[in-house]
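I'd like us to work through together how a protein chain folds, taking it slowly. To get us started, please write out a protein record for me. Go ahead whenever you are ready, and we will take it from there:
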Amino acid sequence: MTPPDVPGRARPEGKVTIAEVAARAGVSKGAVSLAVNDRPGVSDATRERILEVARELGWRPGRPAGPRSPVLAGNVGLVIARPARMLALEPFYTEFTAGIESVLAERSFSLLLRLVGAVDEEIAVHDGWWRSGQTRGSILVDFTEDDPRIGALRPLGMPVIAVGHPGLTGGFPSVWTDDAAAVTEAVRYLAALGHRRTARVGGPAALGHSGIRTRAFDRVVAELDLEPAPSLSTDYSGEQGARATRTLLASAQRPTAILYDNDIMAVAGLSVAAEMGVSVPDELSLIAWDDSQLCGLTRPSLSAMSHDVFAYGAEAARRLMAAIDGGPECSGPVPTPALVPRGSTARAR
Protein backbone atom coordinates (compact mmCIF):
# COMPACT_ATOMS: atom_id res chain seq x y z
CA MET A 1 0.00 0.00 0.00
CA THR A 2 1.31 3.44 -0.93
CA PRO A 3 1.45 5.69 2.12
CA PRO A 4 -0.55 8.91 1.90
CA ASP A 5 1.22 12.17 1.16
CA VAL A 6 2.46 13.98 4.23
CA PRO A 7 2.42 17.76 3.91
CA GLY A 8 5.92 19.17 3.81
CA ARG A 9 7.52 15.77 3.08
CA ALA A 10 8.82 15.20 -0.43
CA ARG A 11 7.82 12.03 -2.24
CA PRO A 12 10.53 9.88 -3.85
CA GLU A 13 11.88 11.31 -7.09
CA GLY A 14 10.18 9.90 -10.17
CA LYS A 15 6.96 9.06 -8.34
CA VAL A 16 5.30 12.44 -8.89
CA THR A 17 3.94 13.55 -12.26
CA ILE A 18 3.25 16.97 -13.72
CA ALA A 19 -0.45 16.08 -13.66
CA GLU A 20 -0.32 15.62 -9.88
CA VAL A 21 1.39 18.98 -9.42
CA ALA A 22 -1.23 20.64 -11.65
CA ALA A 23 -4.09 19.01 -9.75
CA ARG A 24 -2.69 19.99 -6.35
CA ALA A 25 -2.12 23.59 -7.48
CA GLY A 26 -5.50 23.80 -9.23
CA VAL A 27 -4.05 24.71 -12.63
CA SER A 28 -3.42 23.10 -16.02
CA LYS A 29 -0.31 21.10 -16.88
CA GLY A 30 0.60 23.88 -19.32
CA ALA A 31 0.58 26.40 -16.48
CA VAL A 32 2.94 24.17 -14.47
CA SER A 33 5.30 24.00 -17.42
CA LEU A 34 5.29 27.78 -17.83
CA ALA A 35 5.96 28.31 -14.13
CA VAL A 36 8.84 25.86 -13.66
CA ASN A 37 10.50 26.95 -16.91
CA ASP A 38 10.14 30.64 -15.99
CA ARG A 39 8.08 31.41 -19.08
CA PRO A 40 5.49 34.22 -19.43
CA GLY A 41 1.82 33.28 -19.38
CA VAL A 42 1.02 32.89 -15.66
CA SER A 43 0.74 35.50 -12.92
CA ASP A 44 3.41 35.87 -10.24
CA ALA A 45 1.01 34.58 -7.59
CA THR A 46 0.13 31.49 -9.64
CA ARG A 47 3.79 30.84 -10.43
CA GLU A 48 4.70 30.96 -6.73
CA ARG A 49 1.83 28.63 -5.81
CA ILE A 50 2.91 26.10 -8.44
CA LEU A 51 6.56 26.21 -7.35
CA GLU A 52 5.55 25.77 -3.72
CA VAL A 53 3.46 22.70 -4.58
CA ALA A 54 6.31 21.31 -6.67
CA ARG A 55 8.69 21.74 -3.72
CA GLU A 56 6.23 20.08 -1.32
CA LEU A 57 5.82 17.07 -3.59
CA GLY A 58 9.50 16.88 -4.47
CA TRP A 59 8.78 17.10 -8.18
CA ARG A 60 11.43 18.10 -10.70
CA PRO A 61 10.70 18.48 -14.43
CA GLY A 62 12.52 16.06 -16.67
CA ARG A 63 15.03 17.17 -19.27
CA PRO A 64 13.30 18.21 -22.52
CA ALA A 65 13.68 15.65 -25.27
CA GLY A 66 14.21 18.31 -27.97
CA PRO A 67 13.44 21.87 -28.94
CA ARG A 68 9.71 21.28 -28.39
CA SER A 69 9.28 19.61 -25.01
CA PRO A 70 5.95 17.79 -24.52
CA VAL A 71 5.84 19.38 -21.05
CA LEU A 72 5.00 22.69 -22.76
CA ALA A 73 2.31 21.31 -25.04
CA GLY A 74 -0.95 22.39 -23.38
CA ASN A 75 -1.45 25.88 -24.77
CA VAL A 76 -3.11 27.58 -27.75
CA GLY A 77 -2.14 31.11 -28.79
CA LEU A 78 -4.33 34.09 -29.67
CA VAL A 79 -2.76 37.48 -30.40
CA ILE A 80 -4.95 40.53 -31.07
CA ALA A 81 -3.46 43.69 -32.56
CA ARG A 82 -5.81 46.21 -30.99
CA PRO A 83 -5.56 48.68 -28.10
CA ALA A 84 -6.26 47.03 -24.75
CA ARG A 85 -8.69 49.76 -23.69
CA MET A 86 -10.82 49.36 -26.79
CA LEU A 87 -10.78 45.58 -26.60
CA ALA A 88 -11.99 45.68 -23.00
CA LEU A 89 -15.16 47.44 -24.20
CA GLU A 90 -15.77 45.18 -27.22
CA PRO A 91 -18.38 42.46 -26.47
CA PHE A 92 -17.34 40.41 -29.52
CA TYR A 93 -13.98 39.29 -28.19
CA THR A 94 -15.33 38.65 -24.70
CA GLU A 95 -17.80 36.16 -26.14
CA PHE A 96 -15.38 34.81 -28.73
CA THR A 97 -12.62 33.98 -26.24
CA ALA A 98 -15.17 32.47 -23.85
CA GLY A 99 -16.20 30.12 -26.65
CA ILE A 100 -12.57 29.17 -27.28
CA GLU A 101 -11.98 28.49 -23.58
CA SER A 102 -15.05 26.26 -23.36
CA VAL A 103 -13.49 23.84 -25.85
CA LEU A 104 -9.92 24.06 -24.56
CA ALA A 105 -11.10 23.20 -21.04
CA GLU A 106 -12.38 19.84 -22.30
CA ARG A 107 -8.81 18.96 -23.26
CA SER A 108 -7.08 20.67 -20.29
CA PHE A 109 -5.53 23.17 -22.71
CA SER A 110 -5.01 26.82 -21.83
CA LEU A 111 -5.34 29.97 -23.94
CA LEU A 112 -2.35 32.29 -24.15
CA LEU A 113 -3.77 35.72 -25.01
CA ARG A 114 -1.58 38.67 -25.92
CA LEU A 115 -2.53 42.19 -27.02
CA VAL A 116 -0.06 43.97 -29.31
CA GLY A 117 0.11 47.23 -31.20
CA ALA A 118 0.98 46.02 -34.69
CA VAL A 119 1.02 42.94 -36.89
CA ASP A 120 4.82 42.61 -36.86
CA GLU A 121 4.65 42.29 -33.07
CA GLU A 122 1.96 39.64 -33.47
CA ILE A 123 4.16 37.64 -35.85
CA ALA A 124 7.05 37.80 -33.38
CA VAL A 125 4.85 36.57 -30.51
CA HIS A 126 3.46 33.60 -32.46
CA ASP A 127 6.95 32.72 -33.70
CA GLY A 128 8.42 32.89 -30.20
CA TRP A 129 5.63 30.86 -28.63
CA TRP A 130 5.91 28.14 -31.24
CA ARG A 131 9.70 27.87 -31.33
CA SER A 132 9.95 27.77 -27.52
CA GLY A 133 7.28 25.09 -27.27
CA GLN A 134 4.80 27.26 -25.38
CA THR A 135 1.98 26.61 -27.84
CA ARG A 136 0.69 23.72 -29.91
CA GLY A 137 -1.02 26.02 -32.41
CA SER A 138 -2.70 29.41 -32.83
CA ILE A 139 -5.95 31.09 -33.81
CA LEU A 140 -5.46 34.04 -36.18
CA VAL A 141 -8.01 36.86 -36.40
CA ASP A 142 -8.48 40.23 -38.14
CA PHE A 143 -7.11 39.37 -41.58
CA THR A 144 -6.22 42.10 -44.06
CA GLU A 145 -5.76 41.97 -47.81
CA ASP A 146 -2.33 40.41 -48.53
CA ASP A 147 -1.93 39.68 -44.83
CA PRO A 148 1.79 39.48 -43.90
CA ARG A 149 1.16 36.74 -41.31
CA ILE A 150 0.52 34.23 -44.07
CA GLY A 151 4.04 34.30 -45.49
CA ALA A 152 5.70 34.72 -42.09
CA LEU A 153 3.96 31.93 -40.17
CA ARG A 154 3.35 29.27 -42.83
CA PRO A 155 7.01 28.09 -42.93
CA LEU A 156 6.84 27.28 -39.20
CA GLY A 157 4.51 24.35 -39.80
CA MET A 158 2.42 25.51 -36.85
CA PRO A 159 -1.21 24.31 -36.70
CA VAL A 160 -3.38 27.34 -37.40
CA ILE A 161 -7.06 28.14 -37.72
CA ALA A 162 -7.76 31.44 -39.45
CA VAL A 163 -10.92 33.35 -38.56
CA GLY A 164 -11.76 34.96 -41.86
CA HIS A 165 -13.06 34.39 -45.37
CA PRO A 166 -10.89 31.95 -47.39
CA GLY A 167 -10.23 34.72 -49.89
CA LEU A 168 -8.24 36.50 -47.19
CA THR A 169 -6.50 33.68 -45.31
CA GLY A 170 -3.96 32.47 -47.88
CA GLY A 171 -4.77 28.77 -47.71
CA PHE A 172 -4.79 28.45 -43.91
CA PRO A 173 -7.73 26.33 -42.71
CA SER A 174 -10.42 28.86 -41.88
CA VAL A 175 -13.80 29.47 -40.29
CA TRP A 176 -15.91 32.47 -41.26
CA THR A 177 -19.32 34.11 -41.49
CA ASP A 178 -20.92 35.18 -44.78
CA ASP A 179 -20.74 38.92 -44.13
CA ALA A 180 -21.78 39.82 -47.66
CA ALA A 181 -25.05 37.90 -47.31
CA ALA A 182 -25.72 39.51 -43.92
CA VAL A 183 -25.17 43.06 -45.24
CA THR A 184 -27.42 42.31 -48.20
CA GLU A 185 -30.21 41.11 -45.89
CA ALA A 186 -29.95 44.21 -43.72
CA VAL A 187 -30.10 46.68 -46.61
CA ARG A 188 -32.94 44.82 -48.33
CA TYR A 189 -34.91 44.85 -45.07
CA LEU A 190 -34.45 48.60 -44.68
CA ALA A 191 -35.40 49.15 -48.32
CA ALA A 192 -38.58 47.12 -47.76
CA LEU A 193 -39.40 49.54 -44.94
CA GLY A 194 -39.12 52.40 -47.43
CA HIS A 195 -35.62 53.63 -46.59
CA ARG A 196 -34.03 55.04 -49.73
CA ARG A 197 -30.95 56.51 -48.09
CA THR A 198 -29.10 54.06 -45.80
CA ALA A 199 -25.59 54.82 -44.54
CA ARG A 200 -23.04 52.46 -43.02
CA VAL A 201 -20.60 53.00 -40.13
CA GLY A 202 -17.91 50.35 -40.57
CA GLY A 203 -14.72 49.22 -38.88
CA PRO A 204 -11.13 49.84 -40.02
CA ALA A 205 -10.94 49.93 -43.81
CA ALA A 206 -7.77 47.79 -43.78
CA LEU A 207 -9.57 44.77 -42.31
CA GLY A 208 -10.58 42.23 -44.92
CA HIS A 209 -14.09 41.69 -43.58
CA SER A 210 -14.66 45.47 -43.62
CA GLY A 211 -13.87 45.43 -47.32
CA ILE A 212 -16.24 42.50 -47.89
CA ARG A 213 -19.06 44.34 -46.11
CA THR A 214 -18.40 47.62 -47.92
CA ARG A 215 -18.44 45.97 -51.34
CA ALA A 216 -21.64 44.09 -50.52
CA PHE A 217 -23.24 47.31 -49.23
CA ASP A 218 -22.37 49.25 -52.39
CA ARG A 219 -23.54 46.38 -54.58
CA VAL A 220 -26.98 45.98 -52.99
CA VAL A 221 -27.54 49.77 -52.90
CA ALA A 222 -26.90 49.83 -56.66
CA GLU A 223 -29.04 46.74 -57.33
CA LEU A 224 -32.01 48.25 -55.49
CA ASP A 225 -31.45 51.67 -57.12
CA LEU A 226 -31.24 53.36 -53.72
CA GLU A 227 -29.75 56.80 -53.15
CA PRO A 228 -25.95 56.61 -52.68
CA ALA A 229 -24.95 57.00 -49.04
CA PRO A 230 -21.50 56.88 -47.42
CA SER A 231 -19.70 54.02 -45.71
CA LEU A 232 -17.59 55.62 -42.98
CA SER A 233 -14.57 53.83 -41.48
CA THR A 234 -13.84 53.85 -37.73
CA ASP A 235 -11.76 51.96 -35.17
CA TYR A 236 -14.90 50.22 -33.75
CA SER A 237 -14.88 52.48 -30.66
CA GLY A 238 -17.93 54.23 -29.27
CA GLU A 239 -16.15 57.57 -29.66
CA GLN A 240 -15.59 57.16 -33.38
CA GLY A 241 -19.04 55.61 -33.84
CA ALA A 242 -20.54 58.69 -32.23
CA ARG A 243 -18.41 61.03 -34.37
CA ALA A 244 -19.42 59.23 -37.56
CA THR A 245 -23.09 59.40 -36.58
CA ARG A 246 -22.86 63.17 -35.95
CA THR A 247 -21.26 63.61 -39.37
CA LEU A 248 -24.08 61.69 -41.04
CA LEU A 249 -26.92 63.40 -39.17
CA ALA A 250 -25.45 66.86 -39.80
CA SER A 251 -25.14 66.30 -43.55
CA ALA A 252 -27.44 67.94 -46.09
CA GLN A 253 -28.52 64.50 -47.31
CA ARG A 254 -29.20 62.97 -43.91
CA PRO A 255 -29.77 59.21 -44.04
CA THR A 256 -33.00 57.71 -42.75
CA ALA A 257 -31.23 54.51 -41.68
CA ILE A 258 -27.73 53.54 -40.49
CA LEU A 259 -26.12 50.09 -40.38
CA TYR A 260 -23.27 49.74 -37.86
CA ASP A 261 -20.44 47.19 -37.85
CA ASN A 262 -20.64 46.48 -34.11
CA ASP A 263 -22.90 47.01 -31.10
CA ILE A 264 -20.82 49.63 -29.29
CA MET A 265 -21.01 52.05 -32.22
CA ALA A 266 -24.75 51.46 -32.62
CA VAL A 267 -25.33 52.28 -28.94
CA ALA A 268 -23.23 55.41 -29.35
CA GLY A 269 -25.20 56.32 -32.47
CA LEU A 270 -28.47 55.97 -30.58
CA SER A 271 -27.17 58.43 -27.96
CA VAL A 272 -26.10 60.90 -30.66
CA ALA A 273 -29.52 60.75 -32.29
CA ALA A 274 -31.12 61.68 -28.95
CA GLU A 275 -28.54 64.44 -28.47
CA MET A 276 -29.40 65.94 -31.88
CA GLY A 277 -33.15 65.58 -31.46
CA VAL A 278 -33.55 62.87 -34.10
CA SER A 279 -36.22 60.38 -33.04
CA VAL A 280 -35.42 56.65 -33.31
CA PRO A 281 -37.17 54.92 -35.03
CA ASP A 282 -39.63 57.61 -36.20
CA GLU A 283 -37.02 59.64 -38.10
CA LEU A 284 -34.04 57.28 -38.12
CA SER A 285 -33.68 53.49 -38.10
CA LEU A 286 -30.56 51.84 -36.66
CA ILE A 287 -29.19 48.29 -37.01
CA ALA A 288 -26.27 46.96 -34.94
CA TRP A 289 -23.98 44.00 -35.65
CA ASP A 290 -23.26 40.98 -33.39
CA ASP A 291 -26.30 41.36 -31.09
CA SER A 292 -24.64 41.33 -27.67
CA GLN A 293 -26.61 41.99 -24.50
CA LEU A 294 -26.09 45.71 -25.11
CA CYS A 295 -28.73 45.62 -27.85
CA GLY A 296 -31.47 44.62 -25.42
CA LEU A 297 -30.50 47.18 -22.78
CA THR A 298 -31.05 50.34 -24.85
CA ARG A 299 -34.32 52.22 -25.27
CA PRO A 300 -35.48 51.57 -27.86
CA SER A 301 -33.82 48.16 -28.09
CA LEU A 302 -31.53 47.81 -31.07
CA SER A 303 -32.32 45.75 -34.13
CA ALA A 304 -29.25 43.69 -34.97
CA MET A 305 -27.55 41.29 -37.33
CA SER A 306 -27.31 38.50 -34.77
CA HIS A 307 -24.95 35.58 -34.60
CA ASP A 308 -23.72 33.28 -31.86
CA VAL A 309 -20.23 34.66 -31.18
CA PHE A 310 -19.62 32.18 -28.35
CA ALA A 311 -20.31 29.29 -30.75
CA TYR A 312 -18.06 30.97 -33.35
CA GLY A 313 -15.11 30.90 -30.93
CA ALA A 314 -15.91 27.34 -29.90
CA GLU A 315 -15.94 26.19 -33.52
CA ALA A 316 -12.58 27.86 -34.20
CA ALA A 317 -11.12 26.04 -31.18
CA ARG A 318 -12.59 22.67 -32.22
CA ARG A 319 -11.07 22.97 -35.67
CA LEU A 320 -7.70 23.90 -34.21
CA MET A 321 -7.82 20.92 -31.84
CA ALA A 322 -8.50 18.68 -34.84
CA ALA A 323 -5.48 20.18 -36.65
CA ILE A 324 -3.28 19.68 -33.58
CA ASP A 325 -4.40 16.05 -33.46
CA GLY A 326 -3.18 15.60 -37.02
CA GLY A 327 -6.60 15.42 -38.67
CA PRO A 328 -7.28 16.64 -42.20
CA GLU A 329 -7.46 20.38 -42.75
CA CYS A 330 -11.09 21.42 -42.55
CA SER A 331 -12.48 24.84 -43.44
CA GLY A 332 -16.07 25.92 -43.40
CA PRO A 333 -18.53 28.69 -42.56
CA VAL A 334 -20.51 29.12 -39.38
CA PRO A 335 -24.15 30.29 -39.59
CA THR A 336 -24.65 33.63 -41.31
CA PRO A 337 -25.69 36.54 -39.05
CA ALA A 338 -29.47 36.89 -39.19
CA LEU A 339 -31.61 39.97 -38.78
CA VAL A 340 -33.42 40.38 -35.43
CA PRO A 341 -35.79 43.37 -35.76
CA ARG A 342 -36.45 45.33 -32.57
CA GLY A 343 -37.52 48.81 -31.57
CA SER A 344 -34.85 50.77 -33.43
CA THR A 345 -36.21 50.11 -36.92
CA ALA A 346 -39.52 51.19 -38.45
CA ARG A 347 -41.04 52.25 -41.74
CA ALA A 348 -39.56 55.39 -43.26
CA ARG A 349 -41.72 58.48 -43.26
